């Protein structure tokens, strides 16, 4: 066995017991070095890594809480906007219904007003026609009366002479005197 041990020592796989040196065998030294490095990293880096992870966790939780608050605020604003939309739609429907009924009412008021105005105009027209007829009849009567009076005066003037005129006056005076006696 000594030969095997010497052969390992002579090849450089194992260093001699009292000296310090580098082991160039990668397959033999890698697991040891990795375990030592990982052990040191875990021992010293555990606190730093834990703090980093806790900070990251807190930031994630804070972001989630903020997102939840923003979501709740957005839902609340959405509900308010929907309620306002419903109120505006109801008010628009009310205005639409009131507007249509107001338009219909104004239409009938206008129709009634026009009908009343037409009746008044018809009455004024009939009154004007009646007035003009009466005035025309009165003018015709006056002309007929004037012509009849002129014709009677003309007949009387042509037929009456002094003697006839004297007898007519006497007869009228006689009739007037007879009337006084009756009373």
Automatic annotation (TrEMBL):
UniProt feature coiled coil, ranges: 64-98
One Gene Ontology MF term: proton-transporting ATP synthase activity, rotational mechanism
UniProt superkingdom: Eukaryota
Bilayer topology annotation: Single-pass membrane protein
Cited HAMAP family: ATP_synth_b_bprime
Misc. remarks from the entry: In plastids the F-type ATPase is also known as CF(1)CF(0).
PANTHER family, per database record: ATP SYNTHASE SUBUNIT B, CHLOROPLASTIC
UniProt name for this protein: ATP synthase subunit b, chloroplastic
